[in-house]
Amino acid sequence: MTMTDQVGLVIIATGVLFDLLGCIGMVRLPDVYNRLQAGTKCVTLGVCLILTGTAVMADATPIRLKAVLCALFVLITSPTAAHALARAARVSGIRLWEKSVADQFARSK
Q1: Cα 45 to Cα 69: distance, rounded to the nearest angstrom
Q2: Residue 11 needs a FRET pair 20 to 30 A away by CA distance; which of 22, 34, 52, 106 works?
Q3: pTM metric for this prediction
Q4: Given this model, what pLDDT does residue 107 score?
Q5: 102 — alpha (psi -120 to 50), left (phi > 0) or beta?
C-alpha cells in the first residue's frame, strides 16, 4: 500500500465518520430544522471527503474528474435542497422546537 493510498483511506474514513455523525444527528435532534442542518452539513462534508479520498486513490484521470464533478454537484444541490425543505416546512406551519433560542424567520414577517 502506497503513501497515497494511505492518505486516501484516511480521508475516506474521515468522510465516513462525518456521515455517521450526520446520521446520528438526524435521529437524535428534536425538530425538522435541526435535523436538516445535521443532514446537510455533516453529510455534505462526508460525501465530499469520500469523493476526495477516491480521487486521491484513483489511478485514472477520468475517475478523478468524475469524483471532483460529483463533489461539486453535491456542494451545489445539497444546501439548495435543504433550503427548499426548510422553507417548505416553515410555510406549511411546522414550528420550531419549544426550547429553540431564536426564530430568525419571525422577524422577517
Answers
A1: 15
A2: 34
A3: 0.84
A4: 62
A5: beta
